Amino acid sequence: MILDSSVHRLSGPPRHEFDFFINATGFEERSASLVRAKCITANKYLSLLFDQHRVLAFDRNFQTMTGVSASFVPDPIGFFREEFKALAREYTNQTGKKITIGLDVSSMNRTMAATTLSAIFANQELVESLHLFYVPGKFHPPKLAFPQIEQVGAVTPELSGFDSEPALPLALVLGLGFEYGTAVGLINQLEPQLTLCLTAIGHDVRFEREVRRANLDFDFGAYNVEVSEYELLNGQSAYRHIENIVYTLVGNFRVVMVPMGPKVLASLLVLIALKYFGKIAVWRVAGPMEPTVILPANKYIDLTVDINIQSDGLSFDRLQDMIEGQNLEFLAT
Amino acid sequence: MRQPSLFESFNARSLDPEQVGRGFIFSPAFVDVAARANAIVLGPRGSGKTTFLKMLTLPALINWHRKDRSKESSRIIDEMDYIAIYVPSDFTWYPDFRRAIKVQPPREIDDILSYALFRSHVLLAICETLDYLSNNDLQNDSKLRRFAIDENENKSERIAQLLGDSWEISPAIRGVYGLKQGVAKRIRQIQHLITLTAVRMPTAASLLDQYPFLTALFFDDLREFSDTFDHVYGGRSRWAACFDEVEIAPDPVKKPIWQSGRSFDPRYLIKLSASPYDAGIVDLLDPRMPMPSHDFKQIDLSTESRHEILRFSQRMFTGICAEFGIPPTRAETMLGSSFYDDSFDSDVADSEAASTSLGQSVGRAQRGRLSPTGFYNRKFNSLAAKDPSFAAYLKARGIDVTEMSELPEFRKASLIRKILATVVIRDEFLFEQQGAPVSKRRERRFRARKTVSHLYTGAFSLFAICERNPRWLIGLLRPLVSEFANTKDRAYLRSIQRSSQAKRIERTIITLFSLLSTLRAESDSNSSIIELVEKIGDYCFDQVLGKQFNAEPILSFYIDKNIEPSTYNAIGKAINQGALVLVPQKVSSKDELEMASFGPGDIRGRRVRLTFLLAPRYRLPLVLGRPVDLFPVLQERTKMKYPDDQLILRDLFSSEVGAEQ
Fold first, then answer.
1. A328 vs B11, B200, B510: nearest CB
2. What is the signed CA dihedral for A312, A316, A321, A322, rounded to 10 degrees?
3. Cα distances (angstroms) measured from residue A44 to each of A80, A93, B275, B600
4. Does A219 lie at the interface with B, CB-CB under 8 angstroms?
5. Is the pTM value of this prediction over 0.90?
6. How far apart are CA B480 and CA B501, in angstroms?
7. Is B329 on the interface with A (CB under 8 A)?
8. What ipTM does the predicted assembly reach?
9. CA distance between the termini of chain A
10. Which of B45, B186, B199, B503 has the highest number of chain A CBs within 10 A, making it the mutation to test binding with A?
11. How far out from the chain centre does Cα B62 lie?
């Protein structure tokens, strides 16, 4: 599903051109750093907004995106359910060609990334190509506070694993970040038969060291947990590695994936869940969030996503139906 | 895919009944669970509730008896006259886990669908049970084949067809396997409907019109199954419906389950497992209704006798050792003796303390220990030298440390043994600063919380702090045994180092704290569960290590009527996770038991203490202590002591907070 993966410096070439460029304007410096560094040019910029935390670098990012005449999207979920298809169709009608999309997930939350990617795959007949961008943050020592969980659940109804086999045992695929407690809490509550924890390598050893420390050297006590590494800067390899694991799990388990850790992992797991649409769940853990300054590392990852794939689960027509809230008879029978 | 070993897996939920049976460690409580009576198994998470219920199933019993030909296994199996239908819990019973984040369907619709989901799991459990009745293992088991049914394909197809008709399921394949597939398909259909309601909101009435199966009741299904079974196979069967983890079951099913002990079909026994606290159940049940405790035998796994805790822990330890090829050995040999337990005497007659202080059963205060060169004598002398309040206490009571061993027994009990635990702890944690001027030396100072004191290490201390919780025992002991088994110096070392044990305790405590932090207290609560535990722990710390020597520290608390609802809820959740432990009620007769019966999930008025697992964090003795009402204690301690009012990981054992006062 990931055709190519490359890493570039924020300050240098190449320049990427798209019909649509989609990002989120948040409080992190990196949310608009690709545009600010002029790495991107697009005919249309769509910038998703959060309903809170308009602090720190938000104003600067907002100005940057205003500078390229971005259309701000205050209700991303509503937009992708109700407006995106019409917008894409109108564009293709005007230009006579399918659209090319650049998607920067650096500052998107899991629901935003899942909703955006789902809408793109639901409308894959309108899309020529999809590039996924991620700007890693510079290392910042974590506080290692005991995390609080306010809500846990599927990122979207479409990615709730609603068509999984109920008689199978549960397998949990966790992306590890600094939130050891969240991982332990989820394992304790779900009590899966198998837990696989994914930890990123290859960007900055300080992250790796701190993630290991925060997770007590990956010691989960009485819980039966396997830990596996993935290459953060090589999305193609990371995707292949994780997808291989999920492929072996999906026939034997109900698979629930919880992407903590880097945002790019969330997108990779969403892509995997789309590949097995209906069979795999992607969950998000929501807790109180304190905006902190995260500066962009001077590099970004560019992943070329195969937009023409077919689902190994339910068909993408069903995905489209769910997103649009139409033809839902298949859910009622 | 490889199956986890018994001790590798943290929970019986992920093990087949066969595996549970093979690794089962018998406990007398199982006799009550298996008896011909309705039963509720209560205990915090990880305490073995699922194991007990799964052990009632035929495959588990067969495998247990194959491995363990003891009188207990034979007697229990001989006396069983019912077939258990085990209904496992499923993560989709949690409202959060069955729907998308921030999607909240109307209560009525959620109730209908969650009930239907639960009911379908009951049907699946019936299919599993029915399927096993013609299994070869059962047919060939000399003791249990009395429950087997003949492998008659016509009958099998007949019962599957009758049940399918009753459940409105049309299986694509005939027989029990097809029926099971049909039920699985039904569950998937309900999953679809849950998703549908998140995307487009139908009305409850339209759902019920379109899907009549949504109105069916699982107790009717159980009754119907029994009728059908007797009709097809003849005879009059007896069953036990075993509902696991009732506290996470959807609300609409809780009430009928709790009420079933009185009113359900006499052919059925009802066996439940539940956490001690259930926020919703008190509101659901009619207060005029007879207490479920009158209709169910209550088995509380957190109140086992100290002897049983020791025996069970030792057998768990032996099992873990066997997994790593280490021959059966006494735990003290590998983990060392416990200093702490040695501070107790088995002759102390306080029945409440006896029920919780494991030390009494294992460490005998040898006469020599009180002699002038003995261990306790040294502790008394050492503490008296650095703690003026203790010196004054001894003086006021006319205790001459040099003559302690000569005191008559009753004086030893009232003067010495009563305070041993506190003396040992104070002596361990109060210290004199080296090199300080003499005038300053008498100031109270504490050792920093950099590591867990070795005082808490050793076999019986480890067993005590694990509270007979198999998950804690496995989590704490298995890595130690694994490391020991793989060390090159094994022949030389012969035992597991205390520093490793201390580190392991520390990690287990951090894991528990991490877990507690993720539990949601009530949305209107102004205190988290961690904060609650910290307040109680700090209060206990002051009781034991306060300025004045306190011979009878307060270490247990009544959940009194002044506790506000949100705090009550936080206490309940802490109990369910094992962070707080319910103290057994003192009852000596059936009448008293009925008088003392609390409703299901009700903890108001009960006495609790901090789990001994947290004793190293707050530097507490492993004893019950005197009780007081909890409300004033929590009122008194309103401020958090951490910067930004937030406890962070490294505060637990590496900060200097509290190192000096």
1. B200
2. 60
3. 15, 15, 55, 60
4. yes
5. no
6. 7
7. no
8. 0.89
9. 31
10. B199
11. 26
